[in-house]
């Protein structure tokens, strides 16, 4: 990536993004209709003999007579309300959000002139991105547009020669017929100029119509010719000069410094000196979309994950998938509201904070994790990877953040002994100031504490101010 003027496009994360810390996005599309296993149904239904293929043929018929396009009219979105989505985002405490703008399935969720296969012409017959942009911004929420459509190259190619993807009249739905090997992560045949041009035109159209505050790119964007990736970045940052806009990207799909690096389902053992983002899912199934028997992570698990990520200079972008009708599962709504309730009380330790000299203390080990190329290729071979970070934290586990002169220490458990011991804040340790005041946010009780060569020792009040995690506000 040396022949183009990438240096002119280098962009630091804007202050609003660094302050926001928490975002939501929503995998919603025709794949939400079968709701079978995951959002890769649109690809895997065409792979003969796989679970999703066998389910499809048993439930809907053979691939010649009932293809992915036949789900379009079944995705009615009759309960979709961008206003209700915006309210849910607000209640969750997320500061930026957006629907998946186009997944890998060539179904654009906006009023597109570039792609006739869109949510206005098919499915709900509504401009999903446009409605969300309007209502989210009315709530003060920054707008995210996520793009996955580089995966369309080879996505629908089937091991069934009679599948509808090979019928010439269906090319507008699935793209041109290609060698089957193009559905690999790193194909021998890279996208042609026509595909790359359309890839870029779709993104530029979204930029023109909605001016998103975040352009999120899923993995595999590297297969797009560099000139078109540069064109998109230059158009966003340069020609359109989106105020305080930022690109997020994965692996080495864009040059370092062109935006914020996104580590899918990622976490770090140590704080980083650069802002980063982890996108992860509320779903506790191995899916990013609604499935027939959905399971969800607890609010405590997400709150702990958010505290850990923020302490290490990151943001958490959390996914939740709605039903085909555009509504959310009651359990998902409940959990998101619980996260928001915790943030409404303790948000000063999360929003607008920056890392302390250390991020963590405690016995529960955190290892560096990313959904890297090996794991992507495993998914392509139908080997889904379960979550690797499901740590059980204790009252001895702490996370640290700062805002100005204030140090926040977040306890990830409540001590049975009745006392918190924060070893890192011992006298003559990393925190040089004399501690004058310790406050437990949400508790009206006066806290007794003392500090010695072993640590800062705080007597727990009689009652918890909240659940999941407990924030001490420390002023020196």
From TrEMBL:
- What's in the GO CC field? lysosome
Alpha-L-fucosidase C-terminal domain segment(s): 395-474
User: Gene3D superfamilies annotated for this entry?
Assistant: Glycosidases, Golgi alpha-mannosidase II
**Residue ranges of every copy of the Glycoside hydrolase family 29 N-terminal domain listed in the record:** 6-348
Q: Which PANTHER family match?
A: ALPHA-L-FUCOSIDASE (PTHR10030), ALPHA-L-FUCOSIDASE-RELATED (PTHR10030:SF37)
Give the GO molecular function terms. Answer: alpha-L-fucosidase activity
Mention any Pfam family matching this sequence: Fucosidase_C
Its Enzyme Commission number? 3.2.1.51
Q: What class of enzyme is it?
A: hydrolase
Keyword field? Glycosidase, Hydrolase, Signal
What is one Gene Ontology biological process annotated in the Swiss-Prot or TrEMBL record? fucose metabolic process
Q: Which family does it belong to?
A: Belongs to the glycosyl hydrolase 29 family.
Q: Which source organism does the UniProt entry give?
A: Blautia liquoris
Coiled-coil spans are: none
Q: What is this protein called?
A: alpha-L-fucosidase
> What InterPro entries does UniProt report for this protein, alphabetically?
FUC_metazoa-typ, Fucosidase_C, GH, Glyco_hydro_29, Glyco_hydro_29_N, Glyco_hydro_b
Q: Per its UniProt entry, which superkingdom is the organism in?
A: Bacteria
Q: What does this protein do?
A: Alpha-L-fucosidase is responsible for hydrolyzing the alpha-1,6-linked fucose joined to the reducing-end N-acetylglucosamine of the carbohydrate moieties of glycoproteins.
